[in-house]
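Quarterly update from the structural biology core.
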Amino acid sequence: MSSNESFKLLSCSEKTMNYIAKQLVNFPNKEYVLKNNIERTMYLLIENIFSYRIESVSRIKMKYLKRLLIQLSMLDYYMRVSYHRKFISFKRYESIANFLLEIRKITYGVIRSEQSV
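Predicted structure, tokenized:
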């Protein structure tokens, strides 16, 4: 696995997290639980990418990648809830979903390359 692919995963994730963070400003104050869960999941997502890059044992690297996929799914769910509660527009939800899909595809590519090593 080249470090360039890892960097692409990290840069796409950071770009997506910055976009989502800008949307969180518009959430009502009474929805602090949803907002906090989204923020926590975003930080855990970045943490798992860093943990994957630092770890040298293949089995543990796979564990971090699988956690990353779980957090991507949770983030997608939280954003879908946000859309249904009308905190974000459909266009923004669709944009975020496409960003998350791109990160998920990169992650599966990294998993395939790790398994072939």
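The longest helix spans residues 58-84.
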